[in-house]
Amino acid sequence: MNSKHLPGRRCLAALLAGLAFGLQAPAQAESESYPNRPITLVVGYPPGGSTDLIARTLGQELSRRLSTPVVIDNVGGAGGAIGAQRVANASPDGYTLLVGANNELAIKRLVAPATVKYETRDFSPIGLIASQPMVLVTAPRSGVKTMADFMKQVKANPGKFTYGSSGVGTALHLSGEMIKDQGGLFMVHIPYKGVAPLTTDLLGGNVDYGIFVLSSGLPLIRSGRVVALGTTERKRSGATPDIPALAETPALKNLDMASWFALMGPAHLPEAVSARLKKALAESLQSPELRRKLEETGSAVPAAPVDLPRFLADETAKYKKIVDFAKIEE
Fold first, then answer.
1. Structural fold of domain 32-132+258-326
2. What is the pTM of this model?
3. Which one of 96, 107, 170, 173 is least enclosed by Cβ atoms within 10 Å?
4. Which residues of the chain have pLDDT under 70?
């Protein structure tokens, strides 16, 4: 190599290094001053549902902890996948986050692989917010009051009875298929576009049983409009200690499924931003007021921080078994 070219090469290298530093410095400063403008929490469902309720409750507490406004953006459609995709595509600066549920973060990719374009790696996990069971219910007119009644009736009449959920491939649908699988039952699934039409048909006698997220089912249960037969987590919910867990039925002893909610950011969040958000979430979940609000709706806040990547992997593996068993696809 001709030595006379070395000074020029060194100058070029120094210039490139300076440019790189000049580009990194503003980004680093931005991360260290985070947040300095409003944060948007994207919810992949219309207002009023369980995920929206969780997001609004958490948003108030995060706003206080981070000293910045937190805005809820409801981006409904495709079972939460449209909202999730928006966050996956967002700039990784911490100002666009997802309050997501198991539907869009784990199940949707299993039942609609051709249409869901994001993967778990497209998100930065911040933390698990809360979980709540689902609940199997029937109308009082059915005469079924206990899980023993339910098991006897359905086993004696394979294929005669129906159960409704809020849609194909939702956590509600999968929990119904778990009941069928573990109980050795044959029931027909009727998918609905949300809780409202399911409720109308259940009360009108057009579907025999329904599966609701507990927070959606509680008003109906407390008013006596439906009979609660059991909840889907292994242990009884603290919000409804009088309603047995389905796992208390011997044939369903391994049934354990919840509807859960997690805070996620786009992939490649700066370390300083991720750490700030994780700290704010952990502090928020220790707030007695936030815990009270969530627990009143049937949600349980994790007692200790959860290893979210491992949790997501375990949950996805569990759902895949159900999806394969029931041959669920969109």
1. D-Maltodextrin-Binding Protein; domain 2 (3.40.190)
2. 0.84
3. 96
4. 1-30
